[in-house]
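Attaching the record inline, Q. Sequence:
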Amino acid sequence: MVCSALRLVLVLADWKLQHPESPLISWQTFSSLCQDAKVPDLITCLEDFGPENLLVEERRKAVAECLHDSGDIIFFTDFDFIVVDLHWFCHWVMGHLI
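Structure, as predicted:
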């Protein structure tokens, strides 16, 4: 999973450069970025509708949690979005709350 997370960090960095106005992404966008990362553990085949598809989803959640633990993103399983711009979140959102 560590190799998957490192490759996905690079994909997320490219995505942030192309979308600087979007500090949040949906889980669906994150899943498509996993698909774009070309990491075999994170890619869902279109034919997979059974338990294998659920396994891929769990792997994606594990990688998102790994990136959350390393401080690259903010991810909670209860929410349908991921914070990819931590500077924006810590300064703008938390600044308004404080």
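The domain at 2-97 is CATH 1.10.10 (Arc Repressor Mutant, subunit A). The radius of gyration is 14 Å.

More tomorrow.
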